User: Which sequence fits this backbone?
């Protein structure tokens, strides 16, 4: 996390986590982050079913908005 978002996540830029072995999408990962790592002010991270406007999400250094759909992007763990 960078650009101030780390303040919402216990002031840490990197987190090592073990995710349950199921099929993951970016959207599922965002809600997992909110439910498991977010320490304060969820309204500054999530708005509706996606991240709040102004938060840049990168997938392999690519803006996720250039990708098809957050519900279709699968993560290989």
Assistant:
């Amino acid at each position: 996390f960078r650009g101030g978002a780390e303040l919402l996540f216990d002031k840490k830029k990197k987190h090592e986590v073990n995710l349950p072995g199921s099929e993951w999408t970016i959207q599922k990962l965002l809600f997992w982050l909110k439910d498991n790592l977010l320490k304060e002010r969820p309204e500054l991270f999530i708005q509706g079913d996606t991240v709040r406007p102004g938060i840049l999400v990168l997938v392999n250094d690519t803006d996720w908005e250039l990708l098809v759909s957050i519900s279709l992007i699968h993560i290989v763990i």
The helical segments are 26-36. The mean pLDDT is 83.
